[in-house]
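Q: Here's a chain of 190 amino acids. Please give me its 3D structure as tokens.
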Amino acid sequence: MSEKEMLSEELLDGWLSMSMAIWNERLVSAMTYNESMVCNLLYKQRKTEGEPLTATVLCAKLQITKPQMNVILNRLEASGIIERIRSREDKRKVHIRLTEQGVPVYETAHREILRFPQMLIARLGEDKCRTFAASMKEVAGCFNELMKNGGITRSKKGEEERIYEKRNTESDQCTRTAGTVSGIPGAVQK
């Protein structure tokens, strides 16, 4: 196995380990992970007085399907945490917002979630955590960009054509390069 393949395996292993740790633990008792993510976006929108959010916008931001989002919104609405308001300008649009009752529920849940990063900071130190946070954001941004611009498609020969990143060190931007991936996940053929 080449150095790049080993690094790909390490990165994938780290990514999956982190994903499983987050998804397999219910971080707050009041709501599910996806519910807390929806409320987080609605809370930020409320605090900044930004554009009202619709289910479609929430789906795009959280990469959740419309049926999944409807289940989440129905549960939050039944709990009185959110409300749906039909747009005055465009009757086809329904804006989603936190209710007055929902704000303290989310704030309590958010404080509960913050315990985990605070424990990591205490264990790993501030510098390591800042570096890790910046790296996670950068990797997530690159991953989203790559998936938006093609992701994985199957060819007739059973190989996968994948868009993969090439780091431009001068501009520190992700650039996309087409490459062929064999049947081995993460292995890029040259």
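Q: Can you summarize the key feature?
A: The chain has a mean pLDDT of 78.
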